User: What shape does this take?
Amino acid sequence: MVKVGVAGASGYAGGEILRLLLAHPQVEIGTLTAGSNAGTRLGEIAPHLHALADRELAETTAAAFEGHDVVFLALPHGASDALARDLSESVLVIDCGADHRLTDGEAWTAFYGTPHAGSWPYGMPELLSHGGAKQRTQLVEARRVAVPGCYPTAVSLGLAPALEAGLVEVDDVVVVAASGTSGAGKSLKPHLLGAEVMGSMSPYGVGGGHRHTPEIEQNLSLAAGEPVSVSFTPTLAPMPRGILATCTARVRSGADVAQVRTAYEKAYGTEQFVTLLPEGQWPATSSVIGSNHVQLQVAYDEHAGRVVVVAAVDNLTKGTAGAAVQSMNIALGLDESAGLTGAGVAP
Assistant: This one.
């Protein structure tokens, strides 16, 4: 059995990791820690985790995780690196925060305002790089993994095949995506109150200001083999969880709809957690809730000369915790799907 600890177990991401680990046949759940909730029973904060309800949350220190094989870090951005440095190099550390995602230190400083902690192998197994290799190979036997952001998961998997195949222009990529409120975490924020969210949608991070923008560009540039610029506009939707991303890019001269669909079939035809839907069927957030699954559909807008890709993902599962568990499985040589499901919850 693999002994696993979770730092930040009282938050949405930490709770979702625990939900998945409870179904993992090769995992023993060890120490659970928190910040301000240290000393509290987990059942008071996450009553849906019945099997762990009587666990008391410990303070988040490296000493709390002695004797563990794997430690998941579900901590606020900027808080992971200090703890990770104090953990043994033999321990598999999986960071669900942003600290180790970006390879460009200047981009990190510009968007996060703190010194760059460096980059770790990136936990998006299905992500294509130019030439056709996938990120999965970088995770084998890794001992440090950076889990992708939720928006970058939907957008990167949505656009990478078209860019890798050279079918769209790299300087005309536009993304508009809607996310549920859990993407903002559990902290109390006035704009996330029920009275503010119910029955209303609103944009945020407009004009290139969202922190996931450089991560999206990093991933798409890897796929294209050259720099990609993205106009990204996120919106807040009145739902607890889920992301629906509409991604468009101008088609390069000579490309046609058959080539575009073929690129996606080639990229994801054997992937168990990414599905290109049959033509005419469109992704919906309700179809992926609770699953480690991405639904995609691609179309060619001939009038506008653009490829349109729509991606649906659960921001807490495949967008965070599912990717973390999937990366753990690959790093440890376990069945990649252990503890995970591709089936959503409906209705």
